[in-house]
Amino acid sequence: MSIDLTRLESLTPDQIDDIQFDTGVFVKNFDISAFRTSILQGQVSRVTKDSFGVTVSRDTVNVLSDLNGVHFDYLEGVVTTKITASVTFTLASMSIEDLAFALGGATVTGDKINVKFGTEAADFINVALILPILDGGFVIAELPKAFSTGGLSISTSKAAVGGLSCTMTGYKSLADSTIQPINLYRISPSGTLTELTVTSAAGTASGDTKLTVSDYTLPTGGHWVYKVGTTAPAIAYRETPDYTWTEWNGTDEITAATGNKITVAVINQDGAVAAGSATVTSND
Questions:
Q1: What digits encode the pLDDT tens for the residues 9-42?
Q2: Single residue among 132, 167, 187 that ends a domain in this structure
Q3: Same domain, 229 and 244
Q4: What is the pTM of this model?
Q5: Which domain does 205 fall in, by range?
Q6: CA dist list (Å): 240 to 3, 11, 41, 164, 236
Q7: What is d(CA 93, CA 49) in angstroms, rounded to the nearest whole number?
Q8: In a 10 Å sphere around its CB, with 0-12 CB exposed, 13-18 middle and 19+ buried, how is residue 186 labelled?
Q9: 205 and 181 in one domain?
Q10: Residues 178, 204 share a domain
Q11: Is residue 284 assigned to a domain?
Protein backbone atom coordinates (compact mmCIF):
# COMPACT_ATOMS: atom_id res chain seq x y z
CA MET A 1 0.00 0.00 0.00
CA SER A 2 1.38 3.43 -0.95
CA ILE A 3 1.13 6.59 1.14
CA ASP A 4 0.39 9.94 -0.46
CA LEU A 5 2.55 12.32 1.57
CA THR A 6 0.81 15.35 0.09
CA ARG A 7 -2.29 14.40 2.08
CA LEU A 8 -0.36 14.71 5.32
CA GLU A 9 0.07 18.48 4.96
CA SER A 10 -1.26 20.10 8.12
CA LEU A 11 -0.02 23.69 7.96
CA THR A 12 -2.70 26.35 8.28
CA PRO A 13 -2.51 30.05 7.38
CA ASP A 14 -2.46 30.90 11.09
CA GLN A 15 0.57 28.69 11.62
CA ILE A 16 2.37 30.34 8.72
CA ASP A 17 1.49 33.78 10.12
CA ASP A 18 3.14 32.77 13.40
CA ILE A 19 6.53 32.03 11.81
CA GLN A 20 9.37 34.18 13.13
CA PHE A 21 11.03 35.39 9.94
CA ASP A 22 13.98 37.59 10.83
CA THR A 23 16.63 38.10 13.47
CA GLY A 24 15.58 39.99 16.55
CA VAL A 25 16.39 43.36 18.05
CA PHE A 26 18.15 43.44 21.41
CA VAL A 27 17.01 46.33 23.61
CA LYS A 28 17.62 47.59 27.14
CA ASN A 29 15.19 49.13 29.63
CA PHE A 30 12.28 47.41 27.91
CA ASP A 31 8.78 48.85 28.43
CA ILE A 32 5.87 46.76 27.11
CA SER A 33 3.61 49.82 26.94
CA ALA A 34 5.94 51.56 24.48
CA PHE A 35 7.87 48.76 22.85
CA ARG A 36 7.06 49.79 19.28
CA THR A 37 9.02 53.00 19.75
CA SER A 38 11.86 51.40 21.73
CA ILE A 39 14.24 51.38 18.78
CA LEU A 40 13.47 54.96 17.79
CA GLN A 41 14.02 56.11 21.36
CA GLY A 42 17.59 54.86 21.44
CA GLN A 43 16.97 51.74 23.50
CA VAL A 44 18.91 49.47 21.15
CA SER A 45 21.48 47.98 23.49
CA ARG A 46 24.11 46.47 21.21
CA VAL A 47 24.86 45.89 17.52
CA THR A 48 24.32 42.17 16.91
CA LYS A 49 24.97 39.64 14.16
CA ASP A 50 24.03 36.08 13.19
CA SER A 51 21.28 34.35 15.15
CA PHE A 52 19.50 34.80 18.47
CA GLY A 53 18.31 32.15 20.87
CA VAL A 54 15.75 32.09 23.68
CA THR A 55 15.73 29.16 26.12
CA VAL A 56 13.41 28.42 29.04
CA SER A 57 14.08 25.16 30.90
CA ARG A 58 12.38 23.56 33.89
CA ASP A 59 13.96 21.24 36.47
CA THR A 60 11.53 18.84 38.14
CA VAL A 61 11.59 16.04 40.67
CA ASN A 62 8.96 13.37 41.26
CA VAL A 63 8.52 13.15 45.03
CA LEU A 64 6.65 9.85 44.72
CA SER A 65 9.49 8.04 42.97
CA ASP A 66 11.20 7.01 46.23
CA LEU A 67 8.10 5.45 47.77
CA ASN A 68 7.96 1.68 48.03
CA GLY A 69 5.34 0.16 45.78
CA VAL A 70 5.30 3.09 43.34
CA HIS A 71 6.43 1.78 39.97
CA PHE A 72 5.39 4.59 37.64
CA ASP A 73 5.92 8.33 37.28
CA TYR A 74 2.66 9.91 38.45
CA LEU A 75 1.83 13.49 37.49
CA GLU A 76 0.64 14.23 41.02
CA GLY A 77 4.19 13.79 42.28
CA VAL A 78 5.91 16.22 39.90
CA VAL A 79 7.33 19.29 41.61
CA THR A 80 9.23 22.10 39.88
CA THR A 81 12.55 22.83 41.57
CA LYS A 82 13.91 25.50 39.22
CA ILE A 83 13.08 27.45 36.07
CA THR A 84 15.98 28.85 34.07
CA ALA A 85 15.58 31.44 31.30
CA SER A 86 18.29 32.80 29.02
CA VAL A 87 18.91 34.54 25.72
CA THR A 88 22.00 34.07 23.54
CA PHE A 89 23.30 36.38 20.85
CA THR A 90 26.49 37.59 19.20
CA LEU A 91 27.75 41.14 19.39
CA ALA A 92 29.33 42.58 16.25
CA SER A 93 31.20 45.26 18.19
CA MET A 94 33.91 44.91 20.83
CA SER A 95 34.07 48.17 22.70
CA ILE A 96 35.21 48.30 26.30
CA GLU A 97 31.57 48.45 27.34
CA ASP A 98 30.77 45.38 25.20
CA LEU A 99 33.57 43.37 26.77
CA ALA A 100 32.50 44.36 30.28
CA PHE A 101 28.90 43.57 29.35
CA ALA A 102 29.86 40.02 28.29
CA LEU A 103 31.83 39.47 31.49
CA GLY A 104 28.86 40.40 33.66
CA GLY A 105 30.39 41.67 36.87
CA ALA A 106 33.26 43.89 35.76
CA THR A 107 34.72 47.31 36.37
CA VAL A 108 36.30 49.57 33.78
CA THR A 109 39.27 51.79 34.60
CA GLY A 110 40.54 53.63 31.54
CA ASP A 111 41.43 50.94 29.00
CA LYS A 112 41.50 48.18 31.60
CA ILE A 113 38.65 45.79 32.41
CA ASN A 114 38.70 44.00 35.76
CA VAL A 115 36.52 40.98 36.46
CA LYS A 116 34.57 41.26 39.73
CA PHE A 117 34.16 38.15 41.85
CA GLY A 118 31.25 39.64 43.73
CA THR A 119 28.02 40.86 42.17
CA GLU A 120 25.91 43.90 42.94
CA ALA A 121 22.26 44.69 42.26
CA ALA A 122 23.33 47.13 39.53
CA ASP A 123 24.98 44.27 37.61
CA PHE A 124 21.53 42.77 36.91
CA ILE A 125 19.92 44.70 34.08
CA ASN A 126 16.69 44.70 32.10
CA VAL A 127 17.08 43.36 28.56
CA ALA A 128 14.64 42.11 25.93
CA LEU A 129 14.74 40.33 22.60
CA ILE A 130 12.07 41.45 20.10
CA LEU A 131 11.34 38.97 17.30
CA PRO A 132 9.18 39.98 14.28
CA ILE A 133 6.44 37.59 13.11
CA LEU A 134 5.09 37.23 9.57
CA ASP A 135 1.64 38.55 10.48
CA GLY A 136 3.16 41.87 11.52
CA GLY A 137 3.21 41.14 15.23
CA PHE A 138 6.04 40.32 17.62
CA VAL A 139 7.21 37.75 20.13
CA ILE A 140 9.11 39.39 22.96
CA ALA A 141 11.34 37.72 25.55
CA GLU A 142 12.04 40.12 28.42
CA LEU A 143 14.52 39.34 31.20
CA PRO A 144 13.78 41.97 33.88
CA LYS A 145 16.91 41.14 35.89
CA ALA A 146 19.50 39.61 33.58
CA PHE A 147 23.15 38.82 34.14
CA SER A 148 25.81 37.61 31.69
CA THR A 149 26.52 33.94 32.49
CA GLY A 150 28.19 32.83 29.28
CA GLY A 151 31.55 34.36 30.06
CA LEU A 152 33.77 35.93 27.44
CA SER A 153 33.98 34.15 24.06
CA ILE A 154 35.47 35.89 21.02
CA SER A 155 35.55 34.17 17.64
CA THR A 156 36.47 35.09 14.10
CA SER A 157 37.59 33.52 10.85
CA LYS A 158 39.45 34.57 7.72
CA ALA A 159 37.70 37.30 5.73
CA ALA A 160 34.79 37.36 8.21
CA VAL A 161 33.48 39.73 10.85
CA GLY A 162 34.38 38.64 14.36
CA GLY A 163 31.82 38.15 17.06
CA LEU A 164 31.52 38.36 20.84
CA SER A 165 29.16 35.62 22.06
CA CYS A 166 26.93 36.41 25.04
CA THR A 167 24.44 34.54 27.16
CA MET A 168 22.15 36.51 29.47
CA THR A 169 20.29 34.63 32.20
CA GLY A 170 17.21 35.94 33.99
CA TYR A 171 16.83 35.82 37.79
CA LYS A 172 14.13 36.19 40.41
CA SER A 173 14.55 38.52 43.38
CA LEU A 174 14.01 37.94 47.10
CA ALA A 175 13.48 41.68 47.52
CA ASP A 176 10.77 41.86 44.83
CA SER A 177 8.65 38.73 44.37
CA THR A 178 6.99 40.16 41.25
CA ILE A 179 10.22 39.85 39.25
CA GLN A 180 10.25 36.69 37.13
CA PRO A 181 13.23 35.17 35.27
CA ILE A 182 11.49 35.84 31.96
CA ASN A 183 8.32 37.51 30.66
CA LEU A 184 7.07 36.36 27.26
CA TYR A 185 4.70 38.45 25.16
CA ARG A 186 2.88 37.70 21.89
CA ILE A 187 1.88 41.08 20.46
CA SER A 188 -0.65 41.21 17.63
CA PRO A 189 -0.21 43.80 14.88
CA SER A 190 -1.88 47.14 15.51
CA GLY A 191 -3.11 49.82 13.19
CA THR A 192 -6.19 50.86 11.26
CA LEU A 193 -7.44 50.30 7.75
CA THR A 194 -7.10 53.11 5.25
CA GLU A 195 -10.63 54.05 4.21
CA LEU A 196 -11.35 53.67 0.49
CA THR A 197 -13.94 55.73 -1.38
CA VAL A 198 -15.78 53.19 -3.56
CA THR A 199 -18.56 54.05 -6.02
CA SER A 200 -20.73 51.71 -8.09
CA ALA A 201 -22.32 52.48 -11.45
CA ALA A 202 -24.21 50.38 -13.97
CA GLY A 203 -21.91 48.20 -16.01
CA THR A 204 -21.89 47.43 -19.71
CA ALA A 205 -23.40 43.95 -19.56
CA SER A 206 -26.68 43.03 -17.92
CA GLY A 207 -26.23 42.31 -14.22
CA ASP A 208 -22.80 43.93 -14.04
CA THR A 209 -21.56 46.93 -12.07
CA LYS A 210 -18.53 49.12 -12.64
CA LEU A 211 -16.57 50.04 -9.52
CA THR A 212 -14.37 53.08 -9.07
CA VAL A 213 -11.93 53.61 -6.20
CA SER A 214 -11.11 57.30 -5.88
CA ASP A 215 -7.89 58.97 -4.72
CA TYR A 216 -5.99 55.79 -3.96
CA THR A 217 -2.91 54.27 -5.57
CA LEU A 218 -2.41 50.55 -5.16
CA PRO A 219 0.87 50.08 -3.23
CA THR A 220 3.68 47.86 -4.47
CA GLY A 221 2.91 44.27 -3.51
CA GLY A 222 -0.78 45.02 -2.95
CA HIS A 223 -3.77 43.52 -4.74
CA TRP A 224 -7.53 44.01 -4.77
CA VAL A 225 -10.22 41.70 -3.44
CA TYR A 226 -13.98 42.19 -3.13
CA LYS A 227 -16.99 40.59 -1.49
CA VAL A 228 -20.75 41.12 -1.99
CA GLY A 229 -23.46 40.74 0.64
CA THR A 230 -26.81 42.02 1.81
CA THR A 231 -24.85 44.03 4.37
CA ALA A 232 -21.39 45.51 3.82
CA PRO A 233 -18.84 42.70 4.32
CA ALA A 234 -16.24 43.59 6.93
CA ILE A 235 -12.53 42.88 7.10
CA ALA A 236 -10.13 43.84 9.90
CA TYR A 237 -6.72 45.43 9.68
CA ARG A 238 -4.09 42.82 8.76
CA GLU A 239 -6.78 40.16 8.39
CA THR A 240 -6.20 37.60 5.64
CA PRO A 241 -9.33 37.25 3.46
CA ASP A 242 -10.82 33.76 3.21
CA TYR A 243 -12.22 31.95 0.18
CA THR A 244 -15.42 34.05 0.20
CA TRP A 245 -13.46 37.02 -1.12
CA THR A 246 -12.71 37.30 -4.85
CA GLU A 247 -9.58 38.64 -6.55
CA TRP A 248 -10.11 41.76 -8.67
CA ASN A 249 -7.78 43.50 -11.11
CA GLY A 250 -9.22 46.94 -10.39
CA THR A 251 -10.89 47.44 -13.77
CA ASP A 252 -13.10 44.47 -14.68
CA GLU A 253 -16.82 44.86 -14.18
CA ILE A 254 -18.35 42.69 -11.47
CA THR A 255 -21.61 40.77 -11.49
CA ALA A 256 -23.73 41.87 -8.53
CA ALA A 257 -27.38 42.73 -7.87
CA THR A 258 -28.56 46.29 -7.39
CA GLY A 259 -29.11 47.15 -3.73
CA ASN A 260 -26.53 44.71 -2.36
CA LYS A 261 -23.43 45.96 -0.58
CA ILE A 262 -19.92 45.45 -1.93
CA THR A 263 -16.66 45.84 -0.04
CA VAL A 264 -13.33 46.33 -1.80
CA ALA A 265 -10.11 45.69 0.15
CA VAL A 266 -6.39 46.04 -0.50
CA ILE A 267 -4.29 43.09 0.62
CA ASN A 268 -0.51 42.81 0.98
CA GLN A 269 1.73 40.17 2.53
CA ASP A 270 0.58 41.21 6.01
CA GLY A 271 -3.17 41.14 5.22
CA ALA A 272 -5.75 43.88 4.71
CA VAL A 273 -4.44 47.46 4.77
CA ALA A 274 -7.34 49.38 3.17
CA ALA A 275 -11.06 48.83 2.58
CA GLY A 276 -14.24 50.62 1.56
CA SER A 277 -17.86 49.76 0.73
CA ALA A 278 -20.60 50.92 -1.61
CA THR A 279 -24.21 50.11 -2.49
CA VAL A 280 -24.32 48.23 -5.79
CA THR A 281 -25.83 49.85 -8.85
CA SER A 282 -26.09 47.22 -11.56
CA ASN A 283 -27.16 47.16 -15.24
CA ASP A 284 -30.68 45.83 -14.76
A1: 666 667 777 777 666 777 778 877 766 544 444 4
A2: 187
A3: yes
A4: 0.62
A5: 194-279
A6: 32, 15, 32, 41, 9
A7: 9
A8: exposed
A9: no
A10: no
A11: no
Residue 199 lies in a domain: yes
Burial of 222 (0-12, 13-18, 19+ CB in 10 A): middle
Q: What are phi and psi of 128, to 5 degrees?
A: -150, 150
Q: How do residues 200-258 score in pLDDT, each as one tens digit?
A: 999 999 999 999 999 999 988 899 999 999 999 999 887 888 899 999 999 999 999 99
208 and 153 in a single domain? The answer is: no
Structural domain includes residue 5: no
* Per-position b or e across 16-47, b if 16+ CB within 10 A of its CB: ebeeeeeebbbbeebeeeebeebeeeebebbe
Phi, psi of 7 (to 5 degrees): -85, -5
